[in-house]
TrEMBL record:
GO cellular component, as recorded: plasma membrane
Entry protein name: MFS transporter
Species name: Ciceribacter naphthalenivorans
Molecular function per GO: transmembrane transporter activity
Location of the Major facilitator superfamily (MFS) profile domain: 1-368
Transmembrane annotation, as ranges: 32-52, 59-77, 89-111, 123-145, 151-169, 190-215, 227-244, 256-275, 281-301, 313-336, 342-363
Keyword Zinc: no
Keywords: Membrane, Transmembrane, Transmembrane helix
Amino acid sequence: MAAAMGFGRFSFTPILPGMIADLGLSSTEAGVIAAANFTGYLAGAVVGAYGWANGRDRWLGLASLLFTALLMAGMGLTDSVAAFVVLRFLSGIASAFAMIFITSIVLGHAARAGNEAVQSAHFAGVGFGIAASSLMIMLVGLAGFGWRADWLAGAGVTFAVFLFVARFLPRAPVHAADVPHEPPIVWSPAVILTMLSYGLFGFGYVVTATFIVTMARMANAGPMVEFLTWFVTGCTAAASLFLWRPVMHRKGLGGAYLAGLLVEAAGVLASVALPSPAAPLVGGALLGATFMIITAYGLRLGRALSPQSPRRALAFMTAAFGIGQIVGPLCAGWLAERTGSFSAPSLVAAAVLLVSAGLILPVQRRLP
């Protein structure tokens, strides 16, 4: 997860400021490149959810990690926006496949062993990879190299992780041969509101997740603050799945999901309302502390509201989230180019997160 997601998917955020400075990318172009990755992730998640891959989990997961390394290397060897879009789209597919197939193996063995802590530890790898990629990019910069070396170094780290995982990843546990057929989803008001809320969350979180280091660069916060912004984001993300568990136990699934949205909205507001260097640091910390648990709890909430059709609910929730995080950077890049900063896009994102929280309120009140 550290390689496939932390490096392969999210290292674009701290590398982007160097690409903008060196290549003269516009905010709109940066948004298009980011959206391409999220589009690929959505496509990979949808394609990977079907049964064609049964029995092929291990080699598909490993191939995805290998391709993630190759595609990252490709990013450092071109300066074409069109090539960036294609490479990030393919990288999104690879990240989704790694997430689906490697996770299915790890959690399958964890379930057989009755070890619930494995799930949190596994997904904490995303935050660990975010923090590690930030540290790597700082070291590359201190060595006097630029954004191309960032991508190539990230590719090298990802390839090393691929070799490690190929050595130790077991085969998938044996599953039942036939998956029972699910009925169509019952589109109750609660289900509709939850999916709309989840889609708006995808829009609201991704603006900060894509551009917060660029915002620190535009505010002249300095290289150390840029590093710490994404490093803190990764550290809080790695810890979030453990730290939010007591909240979920006290407030329930809906209450924890709602609280996460409110905290994240506060973080997005902080990223533009506070003075530098506090703005990116607080914004990054609150982003990391919330985006993974909202993602996880939202999916669980969708499944809980459609107990007869859990896989269909997962697919629709993923699609709603995917659409939101594709539209988010496109709108943010366009708006930032016209206003000259990411303040307006961040304010819009915070407002969208508050609307997302408002939509879940009537649902949360009806949950047991």
